[in-house]
Amino acid sequence: MRLTTVQLVVLLALATSCYAQKKNNFAAGRNSIVQLFEWRWGDIANECEQFLGPRGFAGVQISPPSENIIIKARPWWERYQPVSYKLKTRSGDAAALKDMIRRCNKAGVRVYPDIVINHMAASGGTGTAGNNCNPGSRSYPAVPYGKGDFHKSCAINNYHDAAEVRNCELVGLPDLDQSKQYVRSKIIEVMDHLVDLGVAGFRVDAAKHIWPADLDAIYGSVKNLNTEFFPPNSRPFYYQEVVDFGGDAVKREEYLGFGNVLEFRHGFELSKAFQGKNPLKYLKNWGTEWGLMKPHDSVVFIENHDTQRSGSGGISILSYKESKEYKMATAFMLAHPHGETTRLFSGYSFNSNDQGPPNNNGNILGPGVKPDNTCSNGWTCEHRWSQIYNMVEFRNVVAGTKLTDWWTDGNQQIAFSRGNKGFVAFTVAGDINADIQTSLPAGTYCDLITGIKSNNSCTGKVVKVDSSGKARVKVNANLDGAVAIHVKARLQSKL
């Protein structure tokens, strides 16, 4: 069949639009989205201005902004049970959300809401905006949705049946039928509203449970980004939750034509490696040879709010509870060139999996900030750990360079350079005490894992690189497990 000129133009426009939806919309010179799990909008705005912006972070993923059902004891997962698409939750109302998005954009930090469009609340009662719902009769009058807007009620019992995964109810949550134009229109309406407020894209919850063709149609119908903050014709960036370890009927590749997919295998494999369950030497070919998606197709991460509580694929995913190994895995992610879009996680300490954020009578407490930049009030604030934010700076400094100077002891110790801009080393067994070749200029460097460079001095240990580029590397496996330096951490010689 010969295509007409008009048909070719239409196809080209569609392809261009789909490709644009895979662009993360970061401001130049920045990297990494940080998921500020369950934070209040006003606190996020302050964090953008006071910490994320100045430290070179590129974006913030916020908890679902739409009205959710209020559940006794206020577990975190109530945020994933929508009552309506009114923009009011215990993180704040629409006015606070608008103000936060504006302030974050002004600070150079893009905003990506976690959006729940697969289902509605399974519990009846009152929502955070004062609206009611009756899941039994599929009545959500504040949208409004009724019985005809949902798939027929059924449970997901067989993940080897793609139709069952996408048409039946995820843990009993009433499953919307996104093939219906009315349902699509209501979803597009709230996404358009968020685009008008200035968001840069969306993390799409439970995308695995929605038919790809329906998501493609919805994404393509959402308007271009707000030109107050973005260049004309910019498209929202979509990164989708498709949990795929290779054994289910639903494949991540089905969702790559119109957006990116969260790379769950990334955190799974790096958790194994830095827990000592897979030799670090095998990370030499880290990337697509490990079965990971191409960098432009994925969003890579170590953990999220789900894996932090339940693990994934039968292994414990690293979290703040294994802080040394977690910092090492995160440092490797940020040092390695694989991954066009990296995402960090920042949450709160918890003793039970259902436990909601720090609160006072149900009202979320803000994260207090200590003199050392860490948080109080029960917030872990992993992104404020110096080993994390220093590595965000590392990734910005080494941007555009290739991995060079790979070194290993043949087992559980590795090191590599990023061109002539940076160098890292890691060990999970035995101390490193060796002269290792780098591509860095000669000089004395502040180690970003143990210290902070300030006024041409270092609060931690230093690493010396000689005129041949060899670095004297000392890493204690039981203390820090890693060392990282880059050219902006070089200390100037004193005359």
From TrEMBL:
UniProt KW Flavoprotein keyword: no
Family matches, as InterPro entries: A-amylase/branching_C (IPR006048), A-amylase_C (IPR031319), Alpha_amylase (IPR006046), GH (IPR017853), GH13_cat_dom (IPR006047), Glyco_hydro_b (IPR013780)
Domain Alpha-amylase C-terminal: 404-490
Swiss-Prot/TrEMBL GO biological process terms: carbohydrate metabolic process
Reaction equation(s) it catalyzes: Endohydrolysis of (1->4)-alpha-D-glucosidic linkages in polysaccharides containing three or more (1->4)-alpha-linked D-glucose units
Record's keyword annotation contains Ion transport: no
Named cofactor requirement(s): Ca(2+); chloride
Annotated Glycosyl hydrolase family 13 catalytic domain residues: 31-395
UniProt signal peptide: 1-20
Enzyme Commission code(s) on record: 3.2.1.1
CDD domains to which the protein is assigned, alphabetical: AmyAc_bac_euk_AmyA
Pfam families: Alpha-amylase, Alpha-amylase_C
GO molecular function: alpha-amylase activity; metal ion binding
Entry's family note: Belongs to the glycosyl hydrolase 13 family.
Name listed for the protein in its UniProt record: Alpha-amylase
Lineage: Eukaryota, Metazoa, Ecdysozoa, Arthropoda, Hexapoda
